[in-house]
Amino acid sequence: MLNYQAILEEIHTSLKKTKNTGEIASYIPELANVPKNKLGIHLQLITGENYSVGDASEKFSIQSISKVLSLAKAFQLVGNDLWKRVDVEPSGNPFNHLSLLELEDGIPRNPLINSGAIVIADVLLSHLKNPKEDFLNFVRELTHDETISYNEKIAESERVTGFNNYAAANLLKAYGNLQNKVEDVLDFYFHQCSIMMDCRQLTNAFFVFAHKGKCIKDVQHLTSSQVKRINAIMLTCGFYDEAGEFAFEVGLPGKSGVGGGIVALLPHCFTIATWAPALNPKGNSFLGMQALEQFTTKTKLSIF
Ligand SMILES: NC(=O)CC[C@H](N)C(=O)O
C-alpha cells in the first residue's frame, strides 16, 4: 500500500528546493498580485480518501481549467451536435493563437483553446436561462460546495485587457460560429475563467471524470461515453502546445490554467490538483508539471 501523504510531502520538499524559473501571468493584471512561491497539492482517491500538502486550501483563479467544466455542461446539453462547431484535434499552438481559426473557416481546433472555449460559452448562452448563474450552479452541484464563486475583480481585469479574446470572438462571429453578441459571450467566458477554487475543490469538481460521470455524492451528471471523450480531449489538448510533453512526462488527462492550477486524473483511481502560480513559457505551471511528473513516477500510476 502506497503512503500517499509521505509521497506528497517528499514532492513538496523537493520542489521547495527547486529554483522556480516560472513567471506569474501578468497579461491579466489582477493575476499578477499572487505570491510566486505558493505550492499546494491535493490528492483524492476514488474511494474518498484525501491527502493534502502545502497551500492546497488556498483559493486561486482556475482560468482555463474552467473550459473542461463548460465543455461538460455544453456536452450534457446538446450532445454530439457540439462537434459541428468545434473540432477535437490538438492545435500544437499556444492557447490564444488565431491563425488556425482563419485557415479552418472559424471552426476551432478543440474546446480547450480560447477560441474553442468561446464557442462553448456561446452554446451555453443559447441553452441556459440564466447562463452565469446556471453554470455556477452546475459547478457547485459537481463539487457539492456552495462557497464556489466568480471573482468579479478578475473578470473585469480580463475584460479591459482581453483584446486577443475579443479578436477571437469577432473572428468566430464573422465566420458565423457565434450566435450571441460578442460582448455577452465574452462576459460569460471571463466570468467562467475567474472562478475561484482551491486544490481540494478542484479534485472534487473533476471526480466526475474519474468516476464514469458520477460526482463525489454518486449523482450521475455525464454518461461514461461523454466522460471518455472529455478525458481524451484533456489528454490531447489540455496543455496546448505542451500536451505531448504532459502526456510524455505525466501520462494523465489533465488541464492547466494561467492562474497556476493543474488538475489531472486517472480514471477509476484518483483526481489530483496542484497550484503553483509561476508559469513556464507555454503558460503551464512550472512547478505543477514537475509535481505531477514526480507523482506518477513515484506511484507508477498513470494511464500508460
Ligand atoms: N490558459 C488560460 O488559462 C487562459 C485563460 C484566460 N482567461 C485567457 O483567455 O487568456
Automatic annotation (TrEMBL):
Origin: domain of life: Bacteria
SUPFAM superfamilies found in the cross-reference section: beta-lactamase/transpeptidase-like
Entry keyword annotation includes Acetylation: yes
Positions annotated to bind substrate: 64, 114, 158, 165, 189, 240, 258
Top EC group: hydrolase
Keywords: Acetylation, Hydrolase
Catalytic activity: L-glutamine + H2O = L-glutamate + NH4(+)
EC number: 3.5.1.2
Gene3D superfamilies: DD-peptidase/beta-lactamase superfamily
Gene Ontology MF terms: glutaminase activity
Signal peptide span: none
Entry's family note: Belongs to the glutaminase family.
Subunit structure: Homotetramer.
Protein name stated in the entry: Glutaminase
